[in-house]
Design a protein that fits this description.
Blueprint lengths: L10 E12 L3 E9 L5 H7 L2 E9 L18 E9 L2 E3 L3 E9 L5 H5 L5 E11 L9
Length: about 140
Amino acid sequence: MAKKKAAEAVLTIPAGFGNVNVGDQIARLAVHFDRWQLSLSKADSLVGKRLIGTITAQAGNDNPEQEAIPGLESETTLDGSFDVKSFGFSKNGITTGLSFAIASIDLPKLCSFAKRAGSVTVEEVQDIPADVGDEE
């Protein structure tokens, strides 16, 4: 009997989310990873790929002196596919943008990730289809 190919390891990385930019067909969420959380070789293996997984934003915000923002009292998750087209590297961290097709996500929910801390979980890595443009 032939052995089944083992499923790719699940990757969960703590992240800081930045702004959400919305275009005609694509919404892009800026993401920052600490250098010790994501190796350069792992980041390189994800660039130019479509990732299937979940993004999670922690409840509340990062400032304990600030009042809770309505709607952000609980953890927020969004499942889907997101494209990673490039990474930026500095001594402080690794940055990228997760590009989502607007037609396939809950856009108001994605917008609630802006300026929050959380994580990115990758369950599957695929090549980006050749017919996908660069509109952002």
